[in-house]
Amino acid sequence: MHCLPSERTFLPLPLQHATPIPSVPRGSSVAARAKERQRLRAVDRTRLLDSGDEERFDRLTRLAQQSFGVLSAVISLIGDDRQFLKSFVGPLPRNVAREFSVCDTTLQAEGGLVVPDLGSDARFRDNPFVVGPPFVRFYAGLPLRGPGGWFVGSMCILDTEPRILGLEDRTLLQCLAQEAELELNRGT
User: What is the edge-to-edge ordering of all strands in the sheet holding 138-145?
Assistant: First the structure.
């Protein structure tokens, strides 16, 4: 599969559990707080947080959901205390507390995050979306860069059954994430 040219360089997604780069706990240092403020300014510069539905994003989430045969596909933005689903297919709320967002962890993993079984991963097994509706078990996502190169959100796919993401599927997800990233930066 060939993707459209992009300035983004992807690192390979692991086929098994991804171990994200450890994040500095929010508020733990002056430097960490300053970086988070810059990242949040980049989110604001997209002018997409709390914006309405847009076909340019919705076509990508529909394509992802259909291509992978998953319950949900999402393009999200991570704000200060919540995740906003800019576009999504599936039974998910538009806003999710950041502490329950698997996509927030994806922002710390430059090469993406693949969790074949959220219920078996200590980081996520008690997440309300894993133990309660919609009972998500599989997650694969890539961080999306916004203005200034800051990670502002992610593109991900989720399903109710554990699964492995093969090389061909990883490539397709990367292509879709590249398109989402281009759209996020259009007009900024």
Answer: 95-97, 82-89, 72-78, 151-159, 138-145, 113-115
